[in-house]
Amino acid sequence: MDPRGPRFGAGITALLLLVVVALDLSGFTTSAAALLGAIAALFAWGAFAGIQRHPYGVLYARFVRPRLAPTSEREGAAPPTFAQGVGLAVTLVGLVLHLAGVPLAISIAAGAAFIAAFLNAAFAYCLGCQIYLGLLRAGLLGRSARV
């Protein structure tokens, strides 16, 4: 698959996460929590349906990719899909801690997710993909996993 698609989605996600942090730090915590919940739902969509079926993947395939020169670069779908699961976990932890009354939980979770999304969008460095590859090398994922 074209690796520019996940980078496109990461750029949109990074912008939305900055809005979450700004809302939370401005005192609009309920709005920040609602937006972070929507982002978590999008992460769940990507993690369970796959990144090609994710709304950002569909937008990229339909409107962006046709306007770009073809790329010879290819990437498997498993690492970015796993990365969506990592994003889901980070955002859900932030939401749960917020509901438990932990101050700034939303900003901290959104900030952590923003760093990962920004690194992917700006530098093509996917932290969740690196975690996936590390777990694969350790034999904890994939065919070589031992149960």
From TrEMBL:
The segment(s) forming the DUF4395 domain are 1-136
What transmembrane ranges does the database entry give?
32-51, 82-106, 112-136
Keywords for the protein's UniProt record, in alphabetical order: Membrane, Transmembrane, Transmembrane helix
Can you name this protein? Answer: DUF4395 domain-containing protein
Q: Which organism is it from?
A: Marisediminicola antarctica
